[in-house]
Amino acid sequence: MSDPSPGPAAHRGWLAAAALALLWGIGPAIPALFEGGLLGHPWTDLYPSAWGLHWFVSHQPGLPLHAPEIGWPEGMGFYYSSPIHGWLAWPLVAAGVDLAWVYDLLVLAARVAGVLTAFGWLKAEGLEDRGALAGTALYACAAIFHGYAVEGIVEGVDAWTLPLWGLCVARRRPVASIFAFAGVIASSWYLGAAALLVAAVRARETRHVAISAAGGTLLALPLFLAFQGAFPDAAPLDPAVRAAMGTPVRIPTPGVLPGVNPFALTSYVGWLGCGLLLLGARRRPWLAAGAGFAWVLSLGVGPWYDLPGLSMIRFPYRLVAATLFLAAPVVGVAVDAVSRRSRWAGLAAPLIALEAWLLSPVDPLIPASSADVPAIYAEVEPTVLLEVPGPVALPPGVRNPSRPRARYLLWYATLHGAASPWRPDFNAMAPTEEPTWLASWRNVDPVGRQAGGNAPPTPDIAGTRAAQVRQIMVHEDEVGAARAKSIYGALFASGARLVASEGDLNLYLLP
Q1: pTM (2 decimals)?
Q2: Which residues contact 444 (CB under 8 A, 6 or more apart)?
Q3: C-beta separation of 387 from 402 below 8 A
Q4: How many CA atoms lie within 13 A of 72 on its CB side?
Q5: Cα separation, 114 vs 137, whole angstroms
Q6: 10-residue block means of pLDDT along the chain (511 residues)?
């Protein structure tokens, strides 16, 4: 009797996929893991993402939509960008795992899962091992997904949800496909938009695509309504700003070269990937054309951006995920065809991944940002704390030198527990109206003064005290020594008491 169990050759492809998953998913983060802290650089979304994870977990069970911890005393509407990460983190944090470790673990798990689910999907599409690995490298190891991890865009790292839906469709699992499509939308609005593009292109292949897309969208509709309720004032971007957030049409400067790229804005597909896409286009012309159409949309320009739905797109470059997903099986078919004539086709997958890693404009290594909280914050009472200076709202895509302040405005709050009167704008999604007394503190901020405003010439300490805000933390390195000196004088004149001092930090208590 023959052995029905698969032989070693049947597992070889999965072993290669697992090796790719570990090398790409964890390898670029190893130096940062030894350094400790949070994975990602501190200049854009990292600290809001990590604080949001803490906030989401703190308000479980359910889908919290109001944050009393910011915008005190009313609080403000807030929708965490990755509820999937929040729900996965809840039992881990409840078990006592450090929040920074939980954040890092979920980022790495998402990267590994992206490779494994993509390989499983492409194998279910009928590709051979070499073709499936090449398509997996093109999609799951793409620069855009690596850039999300580098920049701390927590919802972006969940590349695995889209191929999971593709796997359910390929295996003809209608109910699972509906839930999987809803999961794509829940993981990221932009990946959800990419999934709708993919569904529009592939709907002619099988009715499972259209049914799952329609059913999954309806299933995820409450999440979208919740998001709109949390950020009711979010408005479409100026067309010029949207265009700046589209796919850059230029040969990128590799991120491996010296210098720091504060944004991971990239739609890099790769020279080898494009060549294989063209090679396989005659075998899968409809998918190749769809990939090109999605790339054109990712440019962020065109009259179609006046249409409902597309007018809400704020970062069009992220639609390139649809290009990568549609191109993956085309590239895989091309590699399978070449592999029948040359064993060198087995190098396609590692070369595609290496090219994206080394030649794209994204930093090849995921950096580490500090998760430490200065000891002085142990002196903060869990009531209300005014950090000086506060957040400054600038248009999306503009390098905002105040963004690293999210470390103390948000991340430190996960330890001290005091509410903040400041209202972060979260990439212009939330309103930043504030009382006159709070606006007066912007005048002590060099970045705040550059951004404009009609703040009084000096901080309104009397108004601050009348608003029942007694704790004030002054960051002397942010406001400058001269301006800090005038603040200290005004505080002492009002009867404030210096509670603690540590380096450039000074904590005052108003009477």
Answers
A1: 0.94
A2: 388, 389, 459, 479, 483, 486, 487
A3: no
A4: 17
A5: 10
A6: 52 94 98 96 93 98 96 94 97 97 98 98 97 98 97 96 98 96 97 97 93 97 93 76 88 86 86 97 96 96 88 92 98 94 88 96 95 97 96 74 92 97 81 83 78 63 94 95 90 95 97 92
